């Protein structure tokens, strides 16, 4: 597997979304799952048989937060307020946010409105994708 640095944001495919985690000083990964909430696991456990990608290379500030994040693991999972992206962005940027969730919600609303106006499933799918991409940044 690729060598990652403390504070690096990593990700792997999990169905239609990317599951994210942040690399801790000891090489393990802090992430958040529905079954276990915020927890620390090995890189291999995080990968769960999938390829792991570097999402964002670390910076000094995120390294420092990664050092302090280790003892704070343990928050409960909540899709809307504390999913894996919320956990990672809190460590990497100091604020919790989830661009993927924001994108899916916005895409769903745009797709639904498009379907109501056009009655075309194809146009609704295009509206969903356009809204998702716009909101996810």
Written description of the protein model:
The chain has 137 residues and is an alpha+beta fold. It contains 5 helices and 5 strands. It has helices at residues 43-47, 60-69, 84-93, 99-118, 121-136; strands at 9-14, 17-23, 29-33, 37-41, 53-56. Strand 2 (17-23) and strand 3 form a beta hairpin. Helix 4 (99-118) runs antiparallel to helix 5 (121-136).
User: What fold name stands as the CATH topology of the largest domain?
Assistant: endopeptidase fold (from Nostoc punctiforme)
SSE string, helix = H, strand = E?
EEEEHEHHHH
What is the CATH class name of the largest domain?
A: Alpha Beta
Unreliable sequence segments: none
Structural class: alpha+beta
Estimated helix fraction: 40-55%
Primary descriptors:
137 residues, alpha+beta, endopeptidase fold (from Nostoc punctiforme), 2 domains, 5-stranded antiparallel sheet, 5 helices, 45% helix
Secondary structure blueprint with pairings:
Elements: E1 9-14, E2 17-23, E3 29-33, E4 37-41, H1 43-47, E5 53-56, H2 60-69, H3 84-93, H4 99-118, H5 121-136
Antiparallel strand pairs: 1-2, 1-5, 2-3, 3-4
Helix pairs in contact: 4-5
